[in-house]
Write a structure and sequence with these properties.
By secondary structure, the protein is an alpha/beta fold. The chain is 38% helix and 18% strand. The chain has one domain (8-233): Purple Acid Phosphatase, chain A, domain 2, CATH 3.60.21. It has helices at 20-34, 57-70, 79-89, 94-98, 102-108, 119-132, 135-142, 171-176, 179-182, 215-218, and strands spanning 8-13, 41-46, 73-75, 147-150, 153-156, 191-194, 203-204, 208-210, 223-227, 230-233. It is globular and about 55 Å long.
């Protein structure tokens, strides 16, 4: 069984997608659990995709940053955060971002785009978005990590490319990979904790666990707790 180093308890959450209310509920669950932690070190690990699709991306980021000020927290990058950063530099990608739930993110920052904005409106929307996102949030987006390792566990947003050493994984794969990773039964060298591809319930395999339960569509945001060789998904 994969293990976490002695004296550490990890709380992992993935694919919040603007569901700020569900995130607050999970924080309440964690806070109750922290009363049982004793002298152990608690680490919060967030696996990316904090924005898009759901109703309140802006407040979700604020809640995460507030949590990070009070608790040891690791924030990983998801493909949706990567897309946001791309759009801020290339407004023409707004049309593609819409397919990923970008309009909901724009709305959470007080912007109301038309359904089919022309190039001029795209430029104006992204200019206004870059002004609407507070500087501390831009700093947050620009400093997200691609991976985190603790004991026998490797935390990443989407997964890893089979056959490539974990130290040599490319960010593109860690943010976007699906079938090649999901269909692999290989031992990756560490036990992979990931999200990105929605499942009805946490999908626990011998080599990985997927904790993306499609919160924005299902109302179910999963919390994974790791301690010693114990793995509990709520």
């Amino acid at each position: 069984m994969p293990t976490v180093p002695e004296g550490i308890r990890i709380y992992a959450i993935s694919d919040i997608h603007g569901c700020a209310d569900l995130l607050q509920q999970m924080f309440a669950v964690i806070d109750r659990d922290l009363t049982t932690i004793g002298s152990r070190r608690a680490i919060h690990v967030f696996l990316g995709d904090y924005i898009d699709r759901g109703p309140d991306s802006n407040r979700t980021i604020e809640l995460l940053m507030e949590r990070g000020m009070k608790h040891e927290s690791i924030f990983l990058k998801g493909n949706h955060e990567a897309f946001l950063l791309d759009v801020l530099h290339a407004p023409s990608q707004l049309q593609d971002w819409k397919q990923y739930g970008g309009l909901q993110t724009l709305a959470s920052y007080g912007l109301r785009p038309s359904l089919n904005p022309d190039p001029a409106e795209q430029d104006e929307l992204i200019r206004r978005l870059s002004q609407a996102i507070p500087p501390h949030q831009l700093h947050f987006f620009n400093n997200l990590r691609a991976r985190f390792v603790c004991g026998d566990f490797f935390f990443v947003h989407a997964g890893v490319k089979p056959g490539v050493a974990l130290a040599n994984q490319q960010e593109q794969d860690m943010l976007w990979i699906r079938d090649e990773f999901l269909e692999s039964n290989k031992n990756f060298g560490k036990y992979i904790v990931h999200g990105h591809t929605p499942v009805q319930q946490p999908d626990i395999r011998p080599n990985r666990v997927n904790i993306d339960t499609g919160a924005y569509a299902t109302g179910n945001l999963t919390l994974l707790t790791l301690q010693d060789d114990s793995m509990i998904a709520l």
